[in-house]
Each structure stands twice: as C-alpha cells, then as structure tokens.
Specification:
This protein is α+β, with helices and mostly antiparallel strands. 29% of the residues lie in helices and 30% in strands. Strands 1, 4, 5, 6 and 7 form a five-stranded mixed sheet that branches. Strands 3-2-8 form a three-stranded antiparallel sheet.
C-alpha cells in the first residue's frame, strides 16, 4: 500500500459510524497536506498502524498495557516511513506480542481513529492518525511482553470495559466483528 493507494482506500472506505466518517475526511485532508505523514517528524501528527487481534472464536482480543501511555490498547505503532500500513501493523503485532503467527484477515482498512498523544520529553502534543487492521491469532499461543508494554492479555470482549473504560473506538471495533 503506497500513499496513493492509501488515499484511494480512504476515498472508498465506507463506515456506518459518523465519528469514523469524520475521521476518514480528516485523514484525507491530513495526507493531502503532509507529504511526510508517514514519518514521526511530521509534527502536527503522523500515520500509525494498529492490529486488532482477535481469537479464532472471536470472543477475545489481545491488548497491551502500554508502558508510556499507561493505558490498555490494541497493538500497533509508527509507520516510520513505511507506506504499507498493513505491513506495519503485522510487524507491530508480532514484535509487541511475541506471537509466532498472526493472520491478517483482510488487507482492507478495518477501522480509523485519530487520537491525541500527550507531550513527552522532546515530543510535543501531536495526533496519531491510526489505520487499524483485523488479525486473528490462537489465544493458546505463548505471549512475550515487549519493552513497550507492561503486560499483555487476552481480554474477553464481554470484559473489555474493565480495561478500556468508555473509549468508543474499542466498541466500534467490537461491533464490526459481527460482520466477520
């Protein structure tokens, strides 16, 4: 997926969620204004890719307790110049979980989100334009916590609120699972 193919995917992306449609339009505007959008050096914000990893029975999701943000999140990270965001999400899924196998269920965008990242050390407050992809993995496989995480856990979808509170993007991704 190149910059041009990402723009094409975003132009054709359809969602039933109003908030996500607003994000889609903001993504298109951001990418058109910032040719460096795949790099962390793009100060107003930059593209990131996430892996929404579900168990084979679609009853659990793998989350990481993020060390810097001190929040439970899906696995993912910065594009760092790589324009194939599904490749970035795949790499992050493997590196951050220690899983030997994850299966990308579709190269199509699964979800879009834009969220603020607080200022930290030399990094100012900025936005992550997060493109999310759907993955599947065997929940019985062993996990290995990376240095970016405090903990990893397979979380039953019915217990998600205990870790993520009212973050609407998580519930949006759960709703979308009904179509898979």
């Amino acid at each position: 997926m190149s910059r041009a193919s990402l723009i094409h995917s975003l132009q054709n992306y359809q969602t039933q969620f109003l908030e996500e449609e607003v994000f889609r339009l903001r993504f298109l505007e951001f990418i058109s204004r910032h040719t460096d959008c795949f790099h962390r050096s793009c100060v107003p914000g930059h593209l990131t890719a996430s892996a929404w990893i579900v168990s084979k029975d679609r009853q659990q999701v793998l989350l990481t307790h993020h060390r810097k943000l001190e929040r439970w999140l899906q696995l993912g990270g910065h594009a760092d110049g790589v324009e194939d965001l599904s490749q970035v999400a795949t790499q992050e899924a493997i590196e951050e979980s220690g899983l030997s196998q994850v299966r990308l269920l579709s190269a199509d965008i699964y979800d879009l989100d834009i969220h603020a990242i607080p200022a930290r050390k030399q990094d100012p407050l900025h936005l992550h334009y997060d493109v999310r992809f759907l993955f599947e993995a065997d929940a019985a496989m062993s996990l290995e916590v990376s240095e970016e995480s405090l903990e990893l856990a397979w979380v039953p979808l019915t217990d998600l609120s205990e870790l993520v509170g009212k973050d609407a993007s998580f519930y949006r991704m759960v709703d979308k699972l009904k179509n898979y």
